[in-house]
UniProtKB/TrEMBL annotation:
Belongs to the class I-like SAM-binding methyltransferase superfamily. MenG/UbiE family. Keywords: Membrane, Methyltransferase, Mitochondrion, Mitochondrion inner membrane, S-adenosyl-L-methionine, Transferase, Ubiquinone biosynthesis. CDD domains: AdoMet_MTases (cd02440). This is 2-methoxy-6-polyprenyl-1,4-benzoquinol methylase, mitochondrial. One of its GO terms (cellular component) is extrinsic component of mitochondrial inner membrane. The lineage of its organism: Eukaryota, Sar, Stramenopiles, Ochrophyta, Pelagophyceae. It comes from Aureoumbra lagunensis. S-adenosyl-L-methionine binds at T118, D149, S195. HAMAP family: MenG_UbiE_methyltr. Pfam families: Ubie_methyltran (PF01209).
Length: 305
C-alpha cells in the first residue's frame, strides 16, 4: 500500500494553492519557462550569485561556501530568519505526512532528504515518528531516513548532532550525494524532500528529474525553499533586509561576508512560485502544487510520482 492514498485531492485543495495541469502547461507555453531554450539543462553556463560560471565550476564553488559556513550554519539560520526557519521546517514536516503514512500502512516509510546537510528536516521527522509511534522506531537493516548532501563538512555536523541525540546510524544515515546524480536505485523512497537546497543546484531541472527517479510510484516529493514575496511593499523591505543585513551578519558572526552575499543572490535568482511549479510538471511530477508561508518569503512545492 502506498502513501498516496492518504493525500486525496480534496485534502490537498485545503492545504495547498493548486494549479491545474492545463494552467501549468499554458504557463509553460507562454514562455516563462520552456522545455528548450531557457531550460538550464541545455545551458553551458550558470549563475553563481552575480557571477556567470561554467556548470562544472558551480558545484565546487557552492561546496566551498558550505564548507566555510558549516560550523556556524545553524546559528546563522536563526539570526538571518529571526528563528522563522524553525517554524517553516516544523510546518513542512508536520504536513509532510510521514508519521500518518506509517500509522496507516503499519510500516515506517523510507525518506531521502536531499541537500540535508546538518539534518534539520531528518531530525524533525525522527522526532515525529517517536512521538506518534515510539514502538515502531527501532534499528533495521535499511535506515528509515537517509540524509544526502554533497558537502562533507555539513554532513559531519549532522552526524555529531545525531550522536548527541543518541540516534543510531541504522535508523538515520548521512551520505555524500549530489541532487543531480543520486547514488540510489530507481523507485527506492516513499518520500523525497529538499529544504533550502534546490536553489544551490547547478541544474534545478535535472535535480528534479533525479529526485523523481528515486521515488517509488505514488511517492511524495516536497521542496521547502525561498521564493518571491507577492506584496510590493513587503518585497521591498525583505530585499533591503536581505541585501544589507544578512551579509553583515555573515561578516560579524561567521567572518564570511562573501558566502552570505552568494546566498542572498541565490535567493534572488531562484525561480518564483509559478516558474518552479511549471518545472515540477515538466519533470514529470503528478498533481504539482505549492503553498506560500510568510507571504511568500518561502514556499512549499509538492508533487507525486
Amino acid at each position: 500500500m502506498t502513501c498516496r492514498v492518504l493525500f486525496s485531492r480534496k485534502v490537498l485543495a485545503l492545504e495547498t494553492r493548486k494549479k491545474s495541469r492545463e494552467n501549468i502547461l499554458d504557463y509553460i507555453h507562454r514562455g516563462r519557462w520552456t522545455s528548450s531554450g531557457s531550460n538550464p539543462s541545455l545551458q553551458e553556463t550558470v549563475h553563481f550569485g552575480s557571477r556567470i560560471v561554467k556548470k562544472e565550476e558551480k558545484a565546487e564553488l557552492v561546496s566551498e561556501v558550505f564548507t566555510s559556513v558549516a560550523s556556524r550554519y545553524d546559528i546563522m539560520n536563526d539570526l538571518m530568519s529571526g528563528g522563522m526557519h524553525r517554524l517553516w521546517k516544523d510546518d513542512f514536516v508536520r504536513k509532510l505526512g510521514v508519521a500518518t503514512c506509517a500509522r496507516a500502512t503499519g510500516s515506517i516509510p523510507r525518506l531521502l532528504d536531499v541537500a540535508g546537510g546538518t539534518g534539520d528536516i531528518a531530525f524533525r521527522v525522527i522526532q515525529q515518528l517517536i512521538n506518534w509511534l515510539p514502538s515502531a522506531v527501532s534499528a533495521q537493516s535499511n535506515p528509515y531516513i537517509i540524509v544526502s548532501d554533497p558537502n562533507a563538512a555539513m554532513l559531519e555536523v549532522g552526524r555529531k548532532k545525531a550522536k548527541e541525540r543518541h540516534i543510531l546510524p541504522e535508523i538515520m544515515k548521512f551520505e555524500i550525494g549530489h541532487a543531480h546524480e543520486l547514488p540510489y536505485d530507481d523507485n527506492t523512497f516513499d518520500f523525497v524532500t529538499i529544504s533550502f537546497g534546490l536553489r544551490n543546484c547547478t541544474d534545478i531541472f535535472a535535480a528534479l528529474q533525479e529526485m523523481r527517479r528515486v521515488l517509488k510510484p505514488g511517492g511524495r516529493f516536497e521542496c521547502l525553499e525561498f521564493s518571491k514575496v507577492s506584496d510590493p511593499l513587503l518585497n521591498t523591505i525583505y530585499r533591503t533586509y536581505s541585501k544589507r543585513v544578512i551579509p553583515e551578519l555573515g561578516a560579524r558572526v561567521a567572518n564570511d561576508r562573501d558566502s552570505y552575499d552568494y546566498l542572498v543572490e541565490s535567493i534572488r535568482r531562484h525561480p518564483d512560485q509559478l516558474q518552479l511549479l511549471s518545472q515540477l510538471s515538466a519533470a514529470g511530477f503528478k498533481s504539482p502544487s505549492y503553498r506560500n508561508l510568510t507571504f511568500g518569503v518561502v514556499a512549499i512545492h509538492s508533487g507525486f510520482k
